[in-house]
Amino acid sequence: MSEDWPLYEVFIRSRSGLEHKHVGSLHAADARMAIEHARDVYTRRQEGVSLWVVRSADIIASDPEEADALFEPARDKVYRHPTFYAIPEEVKNL
Amino acid sequence: MYTQALDTHGKEPAPAVSGESAAQAQRFQARVDAEDKIEPKDWMPDAYRHTLIRQISQHAHSEIVGMLPEGNWITRAPSLKRKAVLIAKVQDEGGHGMYLYSAAETLGISRAQMFEQLLSGTAKYSSIFNYPTLTWADVGAIGWLVDGAAIMNQIPICRCSYGPYARAMVRICKEESFHQRQGFEIMLTLAQGSGAQRAMAQDALNRWWWPSIMMFGPSDADSRHTAQSMRWKIKRFSNDELRQKFIDITVPQAQFLGLSIPDRELRFDPGTQHYLIGPIDWNEFHAVLKGNGPCNRERLEARRTADEAGRWVREAAAAHAVKQHRRTPQAAGGMEPEAS
Questions:
Q1: What is the pTM for the complete model shown?
Q2: pLDDT tops 80 at residue B338
Q3: How far apart are CA B205 and CA B144, in angstroms?
Q4: What is the predicted ipTM?
Q5: Residue B58 half-sphere exposure, CB side, CA atoms within 13 Å?
Q6: Size of interface A-B (CB pairs under 8 A)
Q7: Distance of CA B301 to the CA centre of its chain
Q8: What is the C-alpha to C-alpha distance for residues B202 and A45, in angstroms, rounded to an integer?
Q9: Which secondary-structure segment (H or E) carries B97?
Q10: For B106-191, where are the alpha helices, taking DSSP H only?
Q11: Given CB atoms, is B24 within the 8 Å cutoff of chain A?
């Protein structure tokens, strides 16, 4: 059984002005091949104007086990949202 | 394309494996019940993981093998337009295989392992691709019927509990609709053509109808994995439910084409508002799955030849990547020279 080429994650900017968004992954021997494969695999229907490929091994992800520790503290801080504040109806432009 | 009752292969997944705490399993099922999506790094029962690896990889193999019957007609397509369309469609099937292999890899199986399973014949793929494409009308019938059946199967998987599989399927379903429509258009053109062309269309329908019906897999009574897959929300409808939906939408399309479905017992039942079909030849289905369909050996041989013939290209690309990396490690990325 042969070894796989490195895995790359693919990100596409669908049009100018928008951010790159993750769409999937693929294997390639090098960065250039990763871009070319990403073009063939993920943009056959004009899905994008720009590609990023990142070696999957270089991505550092948060651990789902830590999700509570990381994100729970934001849950009880609803005062960070504008809808938290009651403003009389007659007051405009707020 | 092209999943079928791929959930029927392999062993019954064990409900709970020792070492997994009941509490974890319970939390997992609660998330699934709440329509929360499961992502690669989340805890999941081993049986869920293995069921998905089997289903997604076999689905991927089906896409890859599915390129062969249609690829057979690329050089003989009747016009430049049809040729361009067919190339695009076959390229899409290759792309679908790639999306699915990627999704399966998130569960911890490598691409090389999956290829090995396909080439060694231990992995299954959809039985439909073991039938030959004898005439140009077969390309139409495949798009119309085989892709039609696949769409019926795949749309519910867009809501599958496993995130990467569901996302791959959304992408695939978007592209699949072109496949079905181009197939129907080929059938329509032939059906409105000369007597010989109509006969060719009818012959293709005769040969592809039952294999397409079988794509939905064994009847519910014989489908061992349906209940567990439904609890896990990998599957949303039973094989028979999906099969009936497909029959109900396809029979009127055949009538529009002026072609007859090769089933003397087919009738519309006003009570249930469904088209009822005659008995399915399950012996044929099982024979094809076991490797004894008309083209099983030819398909696997074609994949092995492609793998073997492409070896030097892969080796050259890898050697080039290593060389580039030596020169400019930052720019090249990719494969690093082995430490010596």
A1: 0.91
A2: no
A3: 10
A4: 0.87
A5: 22
A6: 77
A7: 19
A8: 33
A9: helix B80-105
A10: 111-119, 136-141, 147-154, 163-191
A11: no
